[in-house]
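Record type: monomer structure entry
Structure origin: computed from sequence
Chain ID: A
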Amino acid sequence: MYESDLFMSHFKKMGGLEYLEGGIESGFKQATKKEFEPRLLQCKGARYPRVFAVDMKADSVNQGDVFILDLNDKIYFWPGDECNVKEKMKGLEITTNIRKSERHCHAEIYFPKENAEHDKEFWDALGGKPAVINPATDDSAAEAGNDPNMTYSLFKVSNDTGKI
């Protein structure tokens, strides 16, 4: 997916965009009470960092981006050694917003790189710390909309013509 710089600039004051799975209740889909599912979020992009969910495994983590591990009552903020300042800022903003808006301040934020115990908890939740963390990936693919993790489709279903 590719959004123009102009489009992305409209979301700066609102904290940017977050891509979520799911939809809304309709005649085709019944809403059910949502059970909490742990998630790993990746913050990637040089100019307009985007946040999206990735697989909950250690292999999803790389040195060039920021990762947020949301375990409901514990939220871990893990910046890669080569991430940029905008990714860090966006990651901290998202982490804080999750704590305030989604957890109503009942979650704690941890920084695994600053504490060995939290580091172990972070990696254990992802299946164990790898011997070598994946190297950074190029942000230009994400900026250009060529990153396979950031490929989404938007469909419009309408009966404007009398047919669906």
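Annotation 1: The longest strand covers residues 39-44.
Annotation 2: Helices lie at 5-9, 85-102, 116-125, 139-144.
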